[in-house]
Amino acid sequence: MTPRLPTAAELDLVMPEIWLIIAMCAVVMVPLINRHSVILPLVTAVIGLGLAAVFALNPLARFTEGGGSFVFGDMLAVDPFSQFFKLLLAVFTLFILAQWVITSLRTTDARDVPDYLCLLLGAAVGMALMASASHLVMIFVAMETASLPSFALAGFRKRHRASTEGSLKYVLFGSAASAVGVYGMSLVYGATGTMSLAGIAEVAARPEGFTPMLGVGLMVMFAGIAFKLSAAPLHFWCPDVFEGAPIEITTFLSVASKGAAVCLLIRVLQTFSAYGGINASFVGFSTGVAILGCVTATWGNLAALRQTSIRRLLAYSSIAHAGYMIIGASLITVTDVGAPGRALAGALLFYIVVYMFMNLGAFTVAGVVAQRAGTEDIRDYAQMVNRSPALMVLLAVFLLSLFGMPGLGGFMAKAMLGMAMFEVNHPAAFALVAVLLFNTLLSLYYYLRPIYFMVFVVDDQDRPRFAPQGAALALLLICAAAVVWTGIFPNWTTQTARRYATLVLRPTMTQQAMIAPSSDAPLDESDLTP
Predict the structure, then answer these.
(1) Is residue 387 within 8 Å of residue 464, measured between CB atoms?
(2) Taking the model in full, what pTM does it have?
(3) Residue ranges of the domains in the chain?
(4) Helix 258-276, helix 339-373: angle, nearest 10
(5) What is the pLDDT of residues 406-435, one digit of tens each?
């Protein structure tokens, strides 16, 4: 097949990624204008993210009633689902920049700012591509584009041993996971003769199409996605990285990285469901995903019970929440892509929205306390109700929402996910909802522990009083308002998430001819076009 240049229509659909790449290039050119300026590269990054968010709205408006388009030879799928996540990602990265200004700007060398912002934008590009990737090559490229800048960002506190140690562990685990994932992709390609998700699903859905080699390849390939989700047993890097990285990078990785991986997992599983229906082999694969989710959620909650560092506690909390999202996504292949499948995808999108504000708020409070009081130990939060009542109330709101307290967004996120799982009407769904409830109750102890110290434990030291001010207070109030709003008035957000939970899964007939071997002809090399 003769390579062709992308059309203007295709470029129009990937403008969010293009603007992020332009912003990456622009921020590293800033030192040519003013080497010591912090404002100029920051404004450049903000403009790039703002344009990415605006251009993500264009396909959202175009595909309002469903549908979508494959671009670049089936490499990327542009649909309401992927564009909604890209919009969230751009907005969330803007919040991360605000958090960086609040907590870390004063300790960052002005000469390092362009590099820092370039890496952050680069990671965002990779995560945006992960939400649209529909081809094995693009999945690998997207995950590596997200991972490589993240490795550097995790170690950006160059003079801190914990940051360097966490970054090294991140690199080692990430490299191993990438190698294993690529090996799995090679097995999948060898078993199906195609690299397109749609082509793989079509071949696997045929009688005798789901071979042992394909099953092993899919499970091994899933290791790469599991690493991004910090799913057990590929989670060991997570607490050390979250403890050592700058607080805003910890927040970014805890939400954006997991959100992108969940979107990729949903696309893979819904593609299998679209082509295979409730295929026994696909159900077996999804059973493995469900077990992984249960183990991840339970391990994350059990490990969090003994934590004394607020950062490590929130790190294990993020592992548990990743497990909840994996549990919900695992049911996609046991339902059709109609109402139940869309309800699950919509519930997971809503979960990501709420989780974004909960984690952003909790980590921002931790960053402000560390900046003002110089501690991240939960025991040093004693009597914060007197020293900083505003921060105490805000942190309590975020922690209770992470637990799932009724009236807060975290409760509605888990309730919507549970109801969507019930809609599947499969025996496994009831067991998985029970696991979700058990883990939610298990998490109550460690979410209440910081609140107990802040309110009831007497502080025997004379610590100074402090309160959030200016940008820190504004960011925390935005997060708290979002958490309360989605808990009390969730309808608009849930309806919006379900409205945009539409994935384009089947290429056009022309594209299908290029990505999947014909079922009426024997396989030969001319059919195996990746």
Answers:
(1) yes
(2) 0.91
(3) 10-517
(4) 170
(5) 999 999 999 999 999 988 887 888 999 999
Q: Once rounded to an integer, what is the mean pLDDT over residues 289-298?
A: 94
Burial class (CB in 10 A: 0-12, 13-18, 19+), 525: exposed
Assign 3-class secondary structure to 341-399: HHHHHHHHHHHHHHHHHHHHHHHHHHHHHHHHHCCCEHHHHCCHHHHCHHHHHHHHHHH
**3-state SS, residue 525:** helix
Contacts of 207 (CB under 8 A, 6+ apart): none
Could you give the CA distance from residue 181 to residue 48 in angstroms, rounded to a whole number? 32
Contacts of 228 (CB under 8 A, 6+ apart): 130, 143, 146, 147, 257, 258, 260, 261, 264
pLDDT for 409 equals: 95
Is it the case that residue 193 has pLDDT exceeding 60?
A: yes
The pair of three-digit structure tokens given for residue 364, joined into one six-digit string: 């921002």
Angle value at C-alpha 140, between 341 and 49, nearest 5 degrees? 80
**Other Cβ atoms closer than 10 A to 458:** 6
Helix (DSSP H) and strand (DSSP E) numbers for the chain = 22, 2
3-state secondary structure of 456: coil
Residue among 84, 148, 140, 141 nearest 121 (CA):
148
Answer yes or no: are the C-beta atoms of 130 and 143 closer than 8 Å.
Answer: yes
The H-assigned helical ranges of 456-508 are 470-488, 491-499
Is 46's pLDDT higher than 50?
yes
In terms of phi and psi (left: phi > 0; alpha: psi -120 to 50; beta: otherwise), the region of 135 is: beta
Confidence band of 445 (pLDDT split at 50, 70, 90): very high
More confident residue, 5 or 384: 384
Q: Which residues contact 245 (CB under 8 A, 6 or more apart)?
A: 153, 154, 155, 156, 157, 163, 166, 167, 253
What amino acid occupies position 456? Answer: F
Q: Please give the Cα distance from 235 to 222 (Å, whole number).
A: 14
Q: What angle is formed at CA 361 by the lines to CA 358 and CA 366, rounded to 5 degrees? A: 125
Q: Taking residues 89-108, report their average pLDDT.
A: 92
Q: Which pair of structure tokens corresponds to residue 404?
A: 């799932």
374 torsion bin: left (phi>0), alpha (psi -120 to 50), beta (else): left
Sign of CA dihedral 521, 522, 526, 530: positive
The one-letter amino acid code at 474 reads A
User: For residue 305, is pLDDT > 70?
Assistant: yes
Tell me the mean pLDDT in the region 349-362: 96
**For range 449-461, the mean pLDDT:** 88
Q: How far is Cα 419 from Cα 429, in angstroms, rounded to an integer? A: 10
Q: Write down the pLDDT at residue 355.
A: 97
